[in-house]
């Protein structure tokens, strides 16, 4: 399905109904299929419901030349939530998606959120380009421009749980409350069974 952003960009999303749907926000240079479907997250969330979205410039969504700031990407998610007829959701995000989820929470659309693969340090241009080189994909220069220097700012807007692998250099400064995902790195931690269990337990508490 598609929702239409304020600037006309088509935003692809997939949803499954449930008692308390979870919004899934993928990381830079990835998409919902690779990050959430292929790693078993959608199966894990069958009992709660979910909304998986491809951020602009990624996956099956449109690729405009601008609109990639964290604030604008969060507004895109509001459009998707409105299209899915959901007011407030729990959120699981990964890497860059955590910055977007943080901004979405400031807009009052998040109950609780689990941020994987991210700490407090800014998203540097060098880190984004390195991730792009490792993961491949389409040209994401506009997204790099919009996200470079972005970080989690201020106090957490809602209850939050951080999770990362012990070998994830991008999340080495992740604050408490924190769940270690064992000897995993930035690129394989998302498939961790412990990650899924921790998220579901946090949302149920």
UniProtKB/TrEMBL annotation:
Annotated keywords: Hydrolase
Species this protein is from: Amycolatopsis bartoniae
Keyword Cell wall biogenesis/degradation: no
UniProt-recorded name of the protein: AB hydrolase-1 domain-containing protein
Key word Hydrolase present: yes
Record GO terms (molecular function): hydrolase activity
Domain AB hydrolase-1: 22-164
InterPro entries, A to Z: AB_hydrolase_1, AB_hydrolase_fold, AB_hydrolase_sf
A Pfam family this chain is assigned to: Abhydrolase_6
Cross-referenced SUPFAM superfamilies: alpha/beta-Hydrolases
């Amino acid at each position: 399905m598609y929702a239409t952003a304020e600037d006309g960009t088509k935003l692809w999303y997939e949803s499954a109904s449930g008692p308390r749907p979870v919004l899934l926000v993928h990381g830079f240079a990835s998409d919902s299929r690779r990050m959430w479907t292929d790693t078993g997250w959608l199966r894990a969330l069958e009992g709660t419901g979910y909304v998986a979205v491809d951020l602009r410039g990624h996956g099956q969504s449109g690729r405009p030349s601008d609109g990639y700031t964290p604030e604008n990407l969060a507004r895109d998610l509001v459009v998707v939530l409105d299209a899915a007829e959901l007011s407030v959701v729990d959120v699981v995000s990964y890497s860059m998606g955590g910055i977007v989820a943080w901004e979405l929470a400031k807009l009052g659309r998040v109950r609780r959120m689990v941020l994987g693969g991210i700490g407090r340090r800014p998203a540097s241009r060098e880190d984004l380009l390195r991730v792009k080189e490792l993961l491949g994909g389409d040209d994401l220069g506009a997204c790099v421009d919009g996200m470079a220097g972005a970080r989690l700012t201020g106090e957490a807007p809602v209850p939050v749980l951080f999770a990362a692998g012990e070998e994830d250099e991008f999340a080495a400064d992740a604050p408490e409350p924190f769940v270690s995902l064992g000897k995993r790195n930035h690129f394989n931690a998302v498939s961790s069974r412990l990650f899924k269990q921790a998220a579901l337990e946090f949302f149920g508490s």
